[in-house]
Amino acid sequence: MRIRELIYRCAGIFHPDNKLALLDDRCKRRIKVLGARSLKDYLACLTSSPVRQTELTALLNEITIGETCFFRNVAQLDVLRSTVFPAIVQAKLKSRIRCLRIWSAGCSTGEEPYTLRMLLLEQTQRELKDWSLTIFATDLNERSLAQAREGFFGQHSARNLSPLYRSKYFVPHEEKLRVSAMARSNIVFRRLNLTDDAGMAQMKAMDLILCCNVLIYFDLESKRRVLRHFHDSLLPHGYLFLGNSESLYGVSDEFHLIHFAGCTGYMKSARPLTGSKCK
Amino acid sequence: MTAAPADRQLLLSRVADLRKIPTIPAVLAPLMSYLQQPVEGLDVQTVIDFLAQDKSLAAQCLQMANSPLFGRWQRIESLRAAVMNLGIRHVSDIAMSCSVLNMLPQKSGLDAIVFWEHSLGCALVCRRLAREVKVVDPAKAYLAGLLHDLGIVVNLWLLPVEFRWAFEMAKAEGIPLHEAEQRALGFTHCESGRLLAESWGLAPELIAVLSWHHSPQESGRERELVALVHIADLLCRMGGLNYGYAEKRQVSLFEDSGFALLTEGSNSLKKFDWARLTFEVDSYMDEVHGLVRAIYRG
Asked: pTM for this one?
């Protein structure tokens, strides 16, 4: 329980009662690696030892490890499809701007931006016909980005793919699957440090930002800095989505918590769009 | 489909024929009446005697009393142990929960299990919120959350076909059930709930909750309790404790009229971590699913 509170206070990721077993398991893995004697010793390691920050990062890595895959957060994707994209389209139709700009901040090896692209390709047939679409996919790690650009993925990444998406947007390549040329289009991969003010200032006029399991690694001051940039980057009707059970409580007052069916998100403002131009 | 004014009157007159609705178990009415007095005047053995009259109710109470949702992690084997460990008020909450579970018609358009999962989940969130608000009694909030949708039971018994239209419309369009009822029937389960609550002679605060939980600003009395149930209901419907379908919309609590009513009297709620509560509500899901299914089938 105390480790849960610590993780929530420092990283903003909450483990409800039904996920406590998972947190316990991840702590035990770290205890084994460190040779600690008990959870009590491990808590001391997370709170008072000189390596506490390093250990917190190691524990967060254990918590989020292996999570990356296509269509990871089903509830969030359903909400994007059923509620968020239509709301953005409505807001932009008023100003006759037919472009959609999405930012996957901390995209790692690319599963998230490719998932969004596939989702949008399906949506394009309907309400997004004739719209210009750009997905900005940024990460700090050059090696992850290179892998993302190549678009080759193992079966683990593809475990949530429905047969329809698998056959429509992937090409088998030896033991792996490669994202089809169509699904690789309209995605701009770019190296970006989220705390780099100059780089962040270039990310403008976004309709939607997804930043999942990234802010959890930042200290409070850095989180606030990144969120100020996100705030500047989003259009007035824009949305920010974080990872499952991630919260901005105590971090930022510039975003409002929004409830959707089965997940939460944030909005910077409820004001209507007033003629912002796409770049 | 929208009900014309004449149809609305016709449908309402059918709803007013409440004799067809099953009543709460015979043991519960005197128990509830007995529990109206201050807690210090209550006798544990009297409460146990009331509950022991209905063996099936007693067994269901024990099953529920053993759930972590009611704060117990050690096995409770008898009604006496339940009352001693959980307290009289808590056990009466559990008895009421078990009783209302048996009120839905078996063949209804709305899955009875899903409906009661929502009601039980709402009761738990109400109790959790009441502990934060501090101006509403948690036991009262629990009962209000549990019973807030009794009007749906009325509609299911007395207007099964028409209510099914409304439910299917809500599901297909992803809109709140009360909006679909308004369009299909010309009134909502709030009106049906008020009729039932008045006919049963429920406490005034419960009548207010059943009548106004979708429009708390219109409630003349008990506005904090009504607003609290409104918010808890919203959190459950937007989370996994909905009526079995997703509402395709976004909700900003801070712009909700019920939220303003609830927080104006409570400074602690203004700084409350609503995101965390939302994650906690999701964690109730597994336990609520298991409990309701076990009791319903038991």
From this structure: 0.85
